[in-house]
Design brief:
The structure is a homodimer of 324-residue chains. With 324 residues, chain A is an alpha/beta fold. Helices cover 45% and strands 15% of the residues of chain A. The first copy, chain A, contains 14 helices and ten strands. Chain A has helices at 5-15, 28-34, 52-61, 65-70, 79-90, 105-113, 128-139, 150-169, 185-197, 213-220, 246-253, 262-276, 286-293, 314-321; strands at residues 24-25, 37-42, 72-75, 95-100, 117-121, 142-143, 174-180, 202-208, 258-260, 302-307. In chain A, the strands form two sheets. In chain A, strands 1-2-10-7-8-9 form a six-stranded mixed beta sheet. In chain A, strands 5-4-3-6 form a four-stranded parallel beta sheet, with helices on both faces. In chain A, helix 3 (52-61) packs across helix 8 (150-169) and helix 9 (185-197) crosses helix 11 (246-253). The longest helix of chain A has 20 residues, at 150-169. The interface between A and B is large, with 36 and 36 residues.
């Protein structure tokens, strides 16, 4: 089961009146630091502060009236939670969100503010999948998975649809798009959109060091897991393994995966603050960190970077402000 | 001497390939805090981090080849300096910038990075106008004034041109645009653009408390000065009096001026960080502060706010992160 470009176009038609077509930003000072021109797709400016709102709207807008009458359920450390919570409220259905006990306070609070009921669980002691399955069965709720759902991947792929148009409009001579990768919904969606529109432009995933399950899986040719589930500041993109649906797509379309350190991520967050005036969360800044610090970058004049979200706790953001 | 809508259209044609058409952002959570829908024109995303790049490009693009061969000079506490420095480099002319000794470090450093020669002076001891006049005369440089220049006002007015289009496209039922005001170049330019395109939409200026020379001048019917020249965190918009060219425009077109406290500004900066994921400097956040905290707001469902710039020192930004 995979997704096609047509799925992305259909998702685009279902959600385009709800989502922000985010700008592709450039900064002469950031270009000087990077030694080439960088073009940054600014998904922190998306409604709810991350691209996850696209996939949530795409999936919920595809539900039947009966399913909408019963409600939806999701599990997420934060950004998918906020996206599903608001999308559910727009489509007038109820949302139940299962979040880890140690999710950032602001993400839990905002998920509640958008209207969802939040149920918290302890990582390591309980399985969110088991809680989700039980509640979905008891209440007849539809589970909106964070990445292993064709409608979610298609919704995230609308980022790639916009990128392709913006790359052509700006006349960029780029051969690569760097994109953060957790479960792979965003990167698989963008890679699918690029294959159909700009086949010479290759997507490369970026992950935190020690949590680079996708890079290692791509290199090995099969899905492998990370050793740990915690220990990175990039909470939004720490997942145990690549997704079942997303990994085959990336295996077929993506280039080699990159990885960056927490310190490089904090520096990238500072440069986004200082030159682009955009607030980026750690998980959303890994691709910019790679563009600034990686030794394994593609050789092209213009490099396109996806900044995926900005839902960062103020206390953590302060650390980025002293990063350079 | 005033400016017309045609001047703004001509400036737009000269600079549209150089400037960012900045997005008009909305956040459901910010709407909840404000109790109505807010629409925020995000000029921190402009090249050089503020709207000042528009006016600088407009003025320098209108110079003769002879004037470009000699170079330009400007005085500014920071944002106009950066705009002129980069615009000069784009039009291949040299820039000399006179900045106060206590201008924020990042603004001085960035002005140099864009290519200008920076000359610093001591506020209170020396007159920047005298230094500027002497250097302009000695070196044959063209002075690019920060606001009292028709081409600069016309350039800033392109914000209003974009706003008018965005207000219509979004179908907003707004009757007011709130805009920060220092010398008045931005607000006079926007007011001129709105008069020609959406005459029912009235611009209102917003200033820091105790530095509300424009609000008091509008109320009194003639230009009055502030008592102090320092003592606000809003360094970008502290000017002694309204401009000679800009004040008659505002007198003819603007509504009553508003004023906000430093604490309200810090809270507005936090909300822009938290809900919009945009970095706003204190002077750029006064209009949002008014929208959130003023008791004298217009009675309309949608309120349009100009966020004018984001060139804030990280140390000051940290204060905003603990503001609420």
């Amino acid at each position: 089961m995979t997704i096609t470009f047509s799925d992305i176009e259909q998702a685009h038609h279902r959600i385009k009146h709800l989502v922000v077509k985010t700008p592709l930003l450039n900064s002469p000072r950031l270009d000087t630091i990077a030694g080439r021109r960088l073009w940054l797709k600014a998904e922190p400016l998306q409604i709810t502060g991350s691209f996850k709102f696209r996939g949530a709207c795409s999936a919920i807008s595809a539900l039947s009236e009966e399913a909408l009458a019963r409600g939806v359920i999701a599990y997420s450390s934060g950004n998918h939670a906020q996206g599903v919570s608001l999308a559910a409220s727009i489509f007038k259905t109820s949302a139940t969100i299962i979040m880890p006990h140690d999710a950032p306070d602001n993400k839990v609070a905002n998920t509640r503010r958008y209207g969802a009921e939040v149920i918290q669980y302890r990582r390591g002691e309980e399985s969110r999948e088991a809680i989700g399955a039980r509640l979905a069965s008891e209440r007849g709720l539809t589970l909106i998975k964070p990445y292993d759902d064709p409608n979610v991947i298609a919704g995230q792929g609308t980022v790639g649809l916009e990128l392709a148009e913006q790359i052509v409009t700006q006349g960029l001579s780029t051969t690569a798009v760097l994109c953060c990768c957790g479960g792979g919904g965003l990167s698989a969606g963008i890679a699918t959109a690029l294959e159909a529109t700009l086949p010479k432009v290759i997507l490369q995933t970026v992950e935190p060091k020690h949590f680079d399950d996708t890079a290692r899986s791509l290199a090995l040719g099969h899905r492998v897991a990370n050793r740990a589930e915690q220990g990175s500041i990039c909470d939004a993109i720490v997942t145990p393994t690549p997704g079942e649906l997303t990994f085959p797509i990336l295996q077929s379309l993506a280039g080699a995966g990159l990885a960056v350190s927490d310190d490089e991520v904090l520096q990238a967050m500072f440069h986004a603050f200082d030159t682009l005036k955009i607030v980026v969360e750690p998980g959303g800044a890994v691709a910019l960190a790679a563009a600034l610090f990686s030794d394994h970058l593609p050789d092209c004049e213009d490099l396109v970077i996806v900044l995926s979200g900005g839902n960062v706790d103020p206390r953590l953001f302060k650390k980025a402000l002293v990063a350079t």
